[in-house]
Design a protein that fits this description.
The complex is a heterodimer of chains A (153) and B (218). Chain A is mostly helical and 153 residues long. Chain A has one domain (30-152). Chain A has eight helices and no strands. The radius of gyration of chain A is 19 Å and the shape is globular. The N and C termini of chain A lie far apart (49 Å). Chain B has 218 residues and is an all-alpha fold. Chain B has two domains: 2-51, no CATH class; 101-213, no CATH class. Chain B is built from twelve helices and no strands. The longest helix of chain B has 28 residues, at 72-99. Classes of the chains: A mainly alpha (153), B mainly alpha (218).
Chain lengths: 153, 218
């Protein structure tokens, strides 16, 4: 306890910064790398253009190009993945700053649901019959956020 | 110990799922470099193509260490690595705010408004504040609240609906979201506020549904 009280603010900051380093190395970099590779593979294979055409009508409702659907798919698997896909599509000049702004809250609102199904719903012991409703609401939240962000962006 | 080893030596007939052979064939092609000289969609299955390229200093005045025009795994790594300074700064500051009692203050302020806001008792305030930082810790605390009878089954479901959309909100937004902040055209607090509003909105849809169709016998 005495040692606890002696910690100075810089010490505390460094502790938090270490947590940031660990999150970065164990989660952000692997997820972002996965997203960049995925997008690159989709581009090389021509699937990205195809997705762009197929999803253009739907994503167009939110003022986004069709390829932006990959940001949402990536986010659904992991938030870092969604962010990585968005950054990679931005680097490829498929998304512009306005598109990224529209997508930003949605990446989190429907983010990492595949993981959180076990880590949150499983841990807390939510009854299985509620899962579809909870998934649906998160996706609804993401859709509403894109409609609202379109006004601000 | 030695017997165990013996046993593992004797049971040599391994069952291979059919996917194993396909995966192996894929790996051979993927790493062989045979596709490197090809053009078009097939290069998506070449190791070197996916490893990509580091960016270069095309425009030295504007390029960061990530360079410009990179792609694939190499560009993704540099981009991800470039995020670490802001993540470390953000989590360092959060740690200080927590140390000085900032999170306790948030908990205290939240407690009286949880009932009107989400229909859950104020005692869930700590679990809620925790869930903004860590999805896993929030989930664990929510389970404890239910097990100790502090919240009902319906309240737990509503609370989890709140946590499920944008879980670990603050940490994830500051850590992962930081990658996009430099391109965003609005103040970065605006998307965060919208996230919180929609979290509350979504949880209330669940609250309405449960109140209407699954009333708990008190």
């Amino acid at each position: 306890m005495a040692a606890e009280q002696k910690k100075t603010l810089p010490d505390i900051f460094v502790e938090g910064a270490k947590k940031g380093w660990n999150v970065g190395i164990s989660s952000i970099i692997p997820n972002v790398l996965m997203a960049f590779v995925l997008i690159h593979a989709l581009r090389l294979s021509g699937l990205l253009d195809m997705l762009g055409v197929v999803f253009n009508p739907v994503m167009g409702l939110f003022g986004l190009p069709g390829q932006a659907v990959m940001v949402l798919v990536g986010a659904w698997m992991s938030m870092g993945g969604g962010v990585g896909v968005a950054a990679s599509l931005y680097a490829a000049k498929i998304l512009n700053p306005t598109h990224v702004t529209i997508l930003l809250p949605a990446i989190f609102l429907m983010g990492a649901q595949i993981q959180y199904m076990g880590r949150l719903l499983g841990t807390a012991g939510i009854q299985g019959r509620y899962y579809p409703m909870l998934f649906g609401i998160s996706i609804l939240n993401a859709i509403i956020s894109m409609i609202i962000m379109r006004i601000f962006a | 110990m030695s017997e165990e080893k013996k046993e593992s030596c004797e049971t040599q007939s391994v069952k291979v799922p059919w996917t194993g052979y396909i995966a192996l064939a894929f790996a051979v092609v993927f790493f062989s470099g045979l596709l490197a000289s090809q053009k078009g969609w097939i290069t998506a299955f070449d190791f070197n193509a996916l490893a990509g390229k580091f960016g270069v200093m095309k425009d030295a005045a504007k390029a960061t260490f990530q360079g410009q025009g990179g792609f694939g795994a190499r560009d993704g790594f540099m981009f991800g690595f470039g995020l670490l300074p802001s993540v470390m700064l953000a989590l360092g500051m959060v740690e200080i705010v927590d140390h000085l009692g900032g999170l306790k203050a948030a908990e205290k302020l939240l407690t009286p408004i949880l009932r009107p806001l989400l229909g859950i008792p104020g005692i869930a305030g700590l679990a809620m504040v925790t869930s903004f930082q860590s999805t896993d810790a929030g989930a664990g605390m929510t389970r404890m609240l239910r097990e100790t009878g502090c919240i009902t089954e319906n309240e737990k479901t509503v609370f989890c609906a709140f946590q499920f959309s944008a879980g670990g909100t603050v940490t994830n937004y500051l850590a992962s979201g930081a990658a996009l902040f430099s391109f965003v055209t609005v103040p970065i607090v605006l998307p965060l506020v919208l996230i919180f509003v929609l979290k509350i909105f979504g949880a209330n849809l669940v609250r309405l549904y449960l109140n209407r169709f699954e009333k708990e016998s008190v």
